[in-house]
Amino acid sequence: MDEELISKKELLDLAGISYGQLYRWKRKKLIPEEWFIRKATFTGQETFFPRDKILSRIEQIKQWKEDVPLDELAKRLSPAGVEIERAGDDLVRLGIVGDLAWRLYADAVPNARILAFPDIVCVYLVHEALESGQVSVDEARQLTAAYPRFVTVFRDMQMRVDLVRKLGVGTWLARAPNAEIALDPQANVAFSVDVASAVEQLKLKLM
Amino acid sequence: MGDGAKPKLTVMGQSTAAGGDFGRVRIMGQAVVKGPLTCERLRVMGELEARADVSAEAATIMGQASCRGDVTAAKLQVMGALECDGHLSAGVFKTAGEVVVRGNCGADRALIRGALTVEGLFSADEARFRLHGPCRVREMGMGRLTVELPRYLWKSSMRRHGTLEADVIEADEVHLVHTRARVVRAQVVRLGPGCEIERVEYGQSYEAHPDAKVGRVIDAGRPE
After folding, report:
1. Residues B147-155: what's their mean pLDDT?
2. Predicted ipTM?
């Protein structure tokens, strides 16, 4: 999983921001510490960033910073959970998740009417999986069963969830975002989603 | 919540506290706080040893304080000594004593008039160093950084002053004197006497005093 990196200088040029802004956003926790990757180069140590993540994050910040105070924005962007509850039907009505995803979840978890944020994430992941067209309904149902276990291991939701399939049999797998995996050559990853960025998108939709 | 809503904590002699949420906290004697301490106002005139995080709206350290965790304050003023093993973050950060931060140190505005050691990144929108003592910072990321000599009323040239040492300084605008750094990167760079910089990368303008020792100067606006 080699992500494309961008150097700090390139980033400032490309995004049109200054050192002051970059460090202010870092201080306000709008840009996570893990994205500052230090590497040795011929001019000494330099800082690099995961290119796609940082560029889209900076676009978001620029777009929102006029209307929302930075501290509030940090809360929205942080991968940690927020205190939000929504009724499942509302999620469908708002178009955040599809009807099918919600029905699958409601079947798997009886009595689920009002969902806390981690549960909303689960429905959202199921929705994304179904939307991708790579995941069967049955496999999506398995995800609702596997998800609580994933969250107990990766409590901060910094994880990537993959569907690994071999000879038509799929199984769900959660791992740290940049962790390497090696697969049986006959198996392949049918669907993969970065939960932290899904959470981010979801928050922007919900708030 | 008003001032009266939360309990006060005053330590005059020697005492141990568990921590908690307070209104005003005053330490005149010696206090050990074992758990996280949150308060509206913290005033240390004696000695405080905090074994967990400390957070305050306004904190004034006139004695000695050491903190094993993070220090967070909207307004932090240090006239004595502060040692922080975690990260320090403050809105307005003013020092006239000795501050050691093992982690990162962040402030919106900082005025440093004493000795400062930051082992991580020191980041601020605007920081001003008056070199009364030795300052050592590994990495700096600033909006505007100004380093100047202390202001004395007379015989200022005979007085001793400190220096600032840093590995990397990155800012929009820097104005330095008596600073030793490996790399300085900024849009606007102005170097005064006593500077020793191995490498300067500037974007808009560059000025150097004849007494400044500079290795390489690179106009970052143009390809090398």
Report:
1. 82
2. 0.86
